[in-house]
């Protein structure tokens, strides 16, 4: 009995440590092999298949855009597979950096949708991944230019360190209600700036971005996990949110600040 209890306590302690570790936000650390481009190449990636998927299954509901995973047909599932196959057959380093940004954001979002579709129905993306994993972000989910990649690789070793743009957090989608919305339009080199600004504006003005109730300001946990990308301190983060947010400025807030995030699946 004593040995069984000891094993239980040890396992419980391991789970606590493991959980705190997986929930820690990954740092922005460049994977150097991806930091190159061919600015003389005027060719654009074809994201039309991804746009067809978005047009067919993404709907607006209040502050959310929701993806109707349960309605995806076999034909459209195959279309998504073909899009991912077409995209990953190309080496993004042979393209302009502006094309690369759209490539990586669309790839991340399309892969996330595919991961959900492969396991649907599920209640949350956090239920995916290996044993004791909190989601699939460290799983190898694709191969580009001979390199096996995880979603975390794309976001934290490619997008964040190469572009150093906090709006990236508004562009990549984790299939959750608390996440900035999956854009209704596929990213391209031409529309990237407008889509990033639109995403930042939408999120910062939504209840899941920032809400005030009495003396408490509730912010998305994104500003806690990735605060370093938004500012050096809490007031600097609030100032950056204010750049896109309408109404009363948050900078100078002296009340309580807490963080929240809804991991429920972004489905109708």
From TrEMBL:
<feature type="domain" description="DUF547">
    <location>
        <begin position="93"/>
        <end position="203"/>
    </location>
</feature>
<dbReference type="InterPro" id="IPR006869">
    <property type="entry name" value="DUF547"/>
</dbReference>
<protein>
    <submittedName>
        <fullName>DUF547 domain-containing protein</fullName>
    </submittedName>
</protein>
<feature type="signal peptide">
    <location>
        <begin position="1"/>
        <end position="24"/>
    </location>
</feature>
<keyword id="KW-0732">Signal</keyword>
<dbReference type="Pfam" id="PF04784">
    <property type="entry name" value="DUF547"/>
</dbReference>
